[in-house]
Amino acid sequence: MPLALLRRPDPEHLDIAFAGETFRVALRRRPAARRLTLRVSQATGEVILTLPTRTSLATAQRFAAGHGGWIATRLARVPTRVPFEPGSVLPLRGVPHRIAQRGLRSGATRLEPVGEEPVISVSCEAAFVARRVRDWLQREVRADLAVAITRYTDALGQGPSRVTVRDTRSRWGSCTARGELNFSWRLILAPPLVLDYLVAHEMAHLREMNHSARFWSLVTGICPHMDEAEAWLKRNGASLHRYG
Question: Which three-class secondary structure state does DSSP give residue 40?
């Protein structure tokens, strides 16, 4: 009988103690894995240990425990979370805006500068502030995406069959073989040139479903600020996941 059938089910996580702290390490057993690997998500702070099918849980425990210092160092680099609550500051199109609660009665979320300070003004009970801000940001990103998609549809002579907005972690945008585009709502937090580039990139896939030389030539032809946008994402992209 295969050993995998005799092994007890893996726990969802291991608790690893180091220097007075305890770190929760999620377990992911993968048949394709050839060795033990540890990863700390810069987006969520989740610590993930991937292990081959035949590796014992005891071996995984020793491996993770032996990397306690590495885990602590990587977690220290994960950006601090910024909740959507009154007083928090978040970037809107790359510009810092403070969240302010103007009242408890239900009302529209809107931009309402206080002096020279840009403010996202919310009117609702405290328990609903986070949802109101997130919903408003998603409406804003949809509006910006629509403008950019229209512009690149004119440039390319073809447009998407559908556009969706989600909270993706591994990709800022994607294009399916059916011509459907998907974008992260967090692009509204980046400077406008970043969202514009991501739209150009994904819409170029409507014509070239690859990353060939022809694809990149097409993107640079319609989006001259590609290099600037990619450099910004490389430096700052992970930090956008700290909000909300």
Answer: strand
C-alpha distance from residue 40 to each of 24, 34, 60, 115, 180 (Å): 11, 19, 16, 41, 31
Which residues is 100 bridged to in the sheet?
Answer: 121
Token pair 């600020």: residue: 225
For residues 206 and 219, what is the distance between their CA atoms, to the nearest angstrom?
11
| Per-residue CA distances from 78 to 22, 90, 198 (Å) | 16, 17, 24
Per DSSP bridges, beta strands 89-92 and 37-40 are: unpaired
* Tokens 């002096």 belong to residue: 115
Compute the distance between CA of residue 28 and CA of residue 51 in angstroms, rounded to an integer: 6
Determine the Cα–Cα distance for residues 17 and 69; give it in Å rounded to an integer: 10
Identify the H or E element spanning 209: none
Counts of helices then strands in the chain (DSSP H, E)? 7, 11
Q: What is the mean pLDDT of residues 125-141?
A: 97
Residue 243, phi then psi, degrees to nearest 5 = -90, 135
Distance CA(242)–CA(196), nearest Å, equals: 22
pLDDT in tens, 138-186: 999 999 999 999 999 999 999 999 999 999 988 999 999 999 999 999 9
Show the CA angle centred on residue 186, arms to residues 37 and 144, nearest 5°: 145
- Sign for the pseudo-dihedral over CA of 77, 83, 86, 90: positive
For residue 106, count CB atoms less than 10 angstroms from its CB and return exposed for 0-12, middle for 13-18, buried for 19 or more. exposed
